[in-house]
Write a structure and sequence with these properties.
By secondary structure, the protein is an alpha+beta fold. It has a single domain, classed as tt1808, chain A. The protein is built from four helices and 13 strands. The strands form four sheets. It has a six-stranded mixed beta sheet, sandwiched between helices.
Length: 189
Amino acid sequence: MTSSASVRKKVARYADIEALPEHLVGEIIDGELVVSPRPTLRHARSASRLGMDLGRPFDRGIDGPGGWIILDEPELHLEAHVLVPDLAGWRRERMPELPDTAATSLAPDWVCEVLSPSTEADDRAGKMPLYARFEVAHLWLLDPLLETLEVFRLQEQGWFLVATHRGEQKVCVEPFDAVELDLKSLWER
C-alpha cells in the first residue's frame, strides 16, 4: 500500500547556486533550483549588442536621454526567488547610484530575456509571472534564432503584448523609444 502523503521537493537555497560549477547559471524560481548552461555565443552576442545599443544613449546619455542603469546578467533577489535576466534596467529615479553588492533586491523597471531552446519555457512560464508580481514595468523577449523581439508592458491584468518585431527592422520600442533600435545588428553573426 502506498502512502497518500505527497512527495516534497527540497526547497532550493542560495548555497545550491553557490555549489554549481562556473559554467552553469543557477536561479531559484518558486523554490526550485533551475540550472542552465552558459548561453551560446549567438545568444551572448545578441544580448551584448542589445546592451551596447541601449547603454550608450540610455545608461551613458550619449546621443540619447540617459536616465537609466543597464546591466548584463544582474542577480536579482526578489523575496525567496533568485533570477538572472540577460539584461535589466533601472530608472535613475529608483536607483540613483549603483550599489556595491553582488545582487540587488530592487526589482528592475525593464528586463530582457534572450530566448534559447533550453531556457524559453522557464523564461515564459517561470520568470514572466514573477516579473509581473514584482512590478517590472517592461519585459522584452528576444529570440536570436527566430529573429524576433516581443515587447510587453505590465498592466493591471498582467502582461500586455505591445508589439512583435522581426527581421531587419529599425524600431522605436518602449521604454527606450527615444532612440531607434536596428534589429539587424542583434542577429548578425
